[in-house]
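Reviewers asked in the last cycle whether our approach scales beyond single polypeptides. To address this, we selected a multi-component target totalling 694 residues and predicted its structure end to end. The input consisted of the following lines:
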Amino acid sequence: MLPSLKVIKSHRATGRITLSDVAQAAGVSPSTVSRALRGERAVDPALIERVQAVSAKLGYVPDPAARALASQRSNHVAILIPLLSNALFVDLLDAAQKTLRGAGYQTLMGVTHYDASEEEQLLREQLLHRPAGLLITGLDHNPATRKLMQSSQVPCVHLMDLPADPQALAPYCVGFRQTEAGAAMTRHLLAQGRRRIAFAAAQLDPRVMQRLKGWRTALQAAGCYLPTLEFLNPAPSSLALGGVLFEQIMQQRPAVDAIFFCNDDLAQGALMAALRLGVDVPSQVAIAGFNDLTGSDQMWPPLTTVRTPRAHIGQAAAEMLLSLMRGETPEVPHRDLGFEIVQRQSS
Amino acid sequence: MLPSLKVIKSHRATGRITLSDVAQAAGVSPSTVSRALRGERAVDPALIERVQAVSAKLGYVPDPAARALASQRSNHVAILIPLLSNALFVDLLDAAQKTLRGAGYQTLMGVTHYDASEEEQLLREQLLHRPAGLLITGLDHNPATRKLMQSSQVPCVHLMDLPADPQALAPYCVGFRQTEAGAAMTRHLLAQGRRRIAFAAAQLDPRVMQRLKGWRTALQAAGCYLPTLEFLNPAPSSLALGGVLFEQIMQQRPAVDAIFFCNDDLAQGALMAALRLGVDVPSQVAIAGFNDLTGSDQMWPPLTTVRTPRAHIGQAAAEMLLSLMRGETPEVPHRDLGFEIVQRQSS
DNA sequence: CTGAAAGCGCTTACAG
DNA sequence: CTGAAAGCGCTTACAG
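The resulting structure, written as structure tokens, was:
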């Protein structure tokens, strides 16, 4: 039998039900309640049950701040992404957040704007909250950032990318081979008979540069590589920029028979520009994108692209982080989630 | 002269520089350091300066958890939005987050999926963190949620909407008149000579229903209202659904001469479907959207729409919240940030 | 204007 | 397996 609960009330000024309220009601010490509730082993199963019952009855909820202060570890997980204006990262965030929340963690988001020192500053701020874990986009960070990650001892998983050398002693990461994906789409276009395949990119972040490398390699292997087919613009990716790039390419290299854009928003913009300019896709020029963002299947013509598993990446990375936070060592430190060529009518 | 600092070291096991380290180094009590650093009045200006100097020298950073525990208030601000897959809310989040971070607050995001009970649950979780403030989308919430907001005493600003009755004793909010915006676009189409103007909507959240009401009112005033011109689909908004709605409308009501979509993604999808089906826009049917989302100006033809100030709303709401958190009372509890008809070639 | 002291609500060695 | 006690790093009445 449980002791009668009706007289149990919080004795704190704040009116909050605390650990000691539960302890008192259950007739055990606060330490035991703490251990029982957190599922620490070495507690009598009968006691665990009693404590849980009382705790539920009282509607006890642990105070995150007190817990963080005492344990030097919060239930926050920090996630650093470059931009919110690229749907890719929003999908990543959404999936990670969902998984983390299911496990009782709060997501602290930071937007780096592709700026290494902003990333460093953000990380510094978030580390103050003693996050239980960290999710960070990409594999390359400035030395200060790397040092912060190391010295903080916070479990960390990197998103979207994999180390070039699979054997390398790289950090935990889940992503796919960007270079391979770039090469695969290029080979796909080659297989469709295209020969003068331009590569058009914006933002020029490390992952874009890997796709560029894949494109180069594939074209070189086919004996079709020309440096003049590279169109690199450091401005942020957008539909509008895609239109601009398309016009530029058609004007400067009218003989081009395909354009591989490093992101779908650019490709979508190019498709719209083609419509506007009366350029027929794919008969006159094929268009391919990257990521299979929302809307790409609705374009006219529908866009050929590389489908990347970003939601899956967000989820798998969160799961890997969860396991690291439990103190486990993942068997596979680098998870390759692959990609898929989606052939539609634009090529 | 400052006391020599070189021998000052943290005496805590954690190695962290604490308030007392600063106090000791500055030769004052911890209470004074606490007050000086937080800019509380009633501290000798000379001391404030000294404390700040020592604190900077030592690289002291306050522990958020300890602060939250002691003060019963964290430096978190919770923000509740319906979806991350609608660019509208991402813009809101981005702007609010930027403003809040500038003021030293961390943003805790919650995604409600337009589900009242999920919203309630999320709020409950976030309240555990004793957020310093709350940003919440919309004006209508279930009774439990309203009660939580009230009893928590957390300052709160509502986003995107305004009370129907401007005189009403409504909570703080910043947004624009959804009903008015719906009516304005409808009048705009009427002024262009359109008479059979359909309204096509998805999601059917409260704001969409207000736009519907505006459309109705405007059509009724012009003597053009027909219930058969309403196409309401509760599914989430997307380009694909826009295409489906477009096909459906053209098939069921071929005489329609304009379609007003409640969100740009639907309208963009309709534009693509028109291309696919060979329906000429705007000569055969005009298309209008809502929000002026990214890409709408790049469509073919470019989309006529209502530009809504979502980034501005996010920022202004964050600023209003900041002022509430300072204990101030905003002169204008309801900020109307307006909207703008953007006339492009699709109508 | 300043300080000593209590307290916020937990966790975690340390004994037993 | 359980408990008493110290401690996490701040804030805030309460005196003075």
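Confidence is low (pLDDT under 50) at residues 1-11 of chain B. We regard this as preliminary and will revisit it once experimental data from Aim 1 are available.
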